[in-house]
Write a structure and sequence with these properties.
With 138 residues, this protein is an alpha/beta fold. It has four helices and five strands, in the order αβαββαβαβ. It has a five-stranded mixed β-sheet.
Length: 138
């Protein structure tokens, strides 16, 4: 089971690297002086905390470190949020990040109810939303 977790983390790191490259290429030419901020919205205190939780944040930071913390000359920062397995909490965190804190992409979101709430938020219209695909466990 540990090897499955390690391989899933590797896929997650590669996916984050692809996200960084796509964001950098598709971002408008204006206001690109600040850091690229990525929000890892995951369950850190509820039902899925053991499967995802802090491990998702660590995997995202490892992916950033693989790129030496920069993409196209801009530094990359990771913000972490705990949606507590509640759609309203996840949506509120997303809105705060996108409207006030300059987060450009929301990553992970392993819970489908939270992912649907985040995706349906008007704040996500001009950002990248990369939810985690559901995983089947044997």
């Amino acid at each position: 089971m540990k090897s499955l977790g390690r391989s899933l983390r590797g896929v997650q790191r590669r996916s984050l690297g692809l996200t960084l490259m796509l964001m950098a290429m598709s971002a408008p030419a204006v206001a690109q002086n600040g850091p690229v901020k990525l929000g890892v919205l995951t369950d850190m205190s509820s039902l899925y905390a053991d499967n995802d939780g802090q491990g998702s944040v660590v995997a995202a930071q490892m992916a950033v470190d693989d790129f030496n913390g920069k993409v196209l000359g801009r530094s990359v920062q990771i913000a972490a949020g705990d949606h507590q397995n509640k759609a309203d909490v996840g949506s509120a965190i997303t809105r705060r990040w996108l409207e006030n804190e300059g987060v450009e992409a929301i990553l992970d979101v392993p819970n489908s109810a939270v992912a649907l709430a985040v995706q349906g938020s008007p704040a996500t219209e001009r950002s990248c939303f990369w939810p985690q695909a559901p995983q089947r466990r044997a």
